[in-house]
From TrEMBL:
SUPFAM superfamilies xrefs: Pseudouridine synthase
Family: Belongs to the pseudouridine synthase RluA family.
Source organism per UniProt: Polarella glacialis (Dinoflagellate)
TM helices/strands, residue ranges: none
Top-level taxon of origin: Eukaryota
GO MF entry, a single one: pseudouridine synthase activity
BP GO annotations: enzyme-directed rRNA pseudouridine synthesis
Protein name: Pseudouridine synthase RsuA/RluA-like domain-containing protein
Gene3D superfamilies: Pseudouridine synthase
InterPro entries in UniProt: PsdUridine_synth_cat_dom_sf (IPR020103), RluA_PseudoU_synthase (IPR050188)
């Protein structure tokens, strides 16, 4: 695909070879995947060591507490998405801007549709922090960031839908009802039918191996919002 083509002449030849275990024909370097409908940042492994370490970092879970917070997050990893939400995730009584909502509901396969995920008491622990930066009461749309403090499939989209404020234009988890119709009336037809959610920020240590008492050397990555 486009990402794989862009890596030619930038990585060692062995990292461009097809992943024998992935089964989807991608180079070994692509260990951090975005959903096909998503825009934004991806991390690429440049070496064999990175090929093994990076997935472990990205899949590790961190503690989650609305009281004590979580420090650096998942083994020092902080992953943030930007999204437009249909409604205010804090509810009608929440402050319009600046709200922070902790979502700590487990996620697992949807028993009715195995291709989807859902909040389920039989699922794995999952924690997201949703911050509302702007809210339009007239249009009932919130500009929010979603920090993933665990790594579950479709986690941000599932948690936002569970709050009753699905990501705009999300045909999988969004309601095909009044909220989506109101959004389309306000903003008109969009060039692409995809969830309006963008992988904006990723912070992680260059390695999770360090000497006792030493500080992690960190990478801070950003992907500009699409125009």
């Amino acid at each position: 695909g486009t990402v794989a083509h862009g890596l030619v002449d930038r990585l060692a030849e062995e990292m461009l070879q097809q992943d024998a275990w992935g089964g989807w024909g991608a180079p070994r370097a692509l260990v951090h995947h975005l959903e096909p409908s998503m825009t934004g940042l991806m991390a690429v492994a440049k070496t064999e060591a990175g090929e093994h370490e990076l997935p472990l970092l990205l899949r590790a879970d961190g503690a989650c507490s609305s009281t004590t917070g979580m420090g650096e997050g998942r083994c020092g990893v902080k992953q943030v998405y930007v999204a437009l939400l249909l409604g205010h995730p804090g509810g009608a009584d929440a402050a319009a801007d600046g709200s922070k909502i902790w979502v700590q509901d487990p996620i697992g396969p949807d028993p009715d549709e195995p291709s989807r995920q859902a909040v389920s008491q039989m699922g794995q622990d999952a924690c997201s922090v949703v911050r509302v930066h702007r809210f339009s009461a007239d249009r009932s749309v919130a500009l929010a960031t979603i920090e993933l403090r665990t790594a579950r499939m479709h986690q941000g989209r599932v948690h936002c839908a569970h709050l009753g404020t699905a990501v705009a234009c999300d045909s999988v988890y969004g309601e095909r009802g009044d909220a989506q119709k109101s959004f389309m009336r306000a903003f008109g037809p969009l060039p692409m039918r995809r969830p309006l959610m963008h992988s904006w920020s990723l912070e992680l240590p260059k390695s999770w191996r360090k000497a006792s008492g030493a500080e992690y050397e960190r990478l801070q990555l950003r992907a500009p919002m699409p125009q």
